Amino acid sequence: MPQQVTAVRITELALEGIDPVCIETVNTFCGMLGEYAGDMALTVSASGGVYLGGGILPRIVPILGTSTFSTRFTSKWKLYGFMNDIPVWLVTAEYPALIGACHLLRQQLNI
Question: The whole model's pTM is what?
Answer without folding.
Answer: 0.83
